[in-house]
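Task card 7
Instruction: Convert sequence to structure tokens.
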Amino acid sequence: MLIREAMDTYEISQRRGCRLPKYNRSSIRYRPHSRPDERALRMRICEMAAVRLRFGYRRITILLKREGW
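Output:
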């Protein structure tokens, strides 16, 4: 990331590095949370949507809840 490179190269603080391009500091601190593996659920949603073409996400959600997802 550009700001991290500037911080390392010029030995400036995070606050100063973010101020120059008017970048929010919370964006640089953000760490994504690891998600559980949802491949099976995604596959089931695709199967249901392929069989029931007229069903929207709300109806598919109801059917998934009935199945125990």
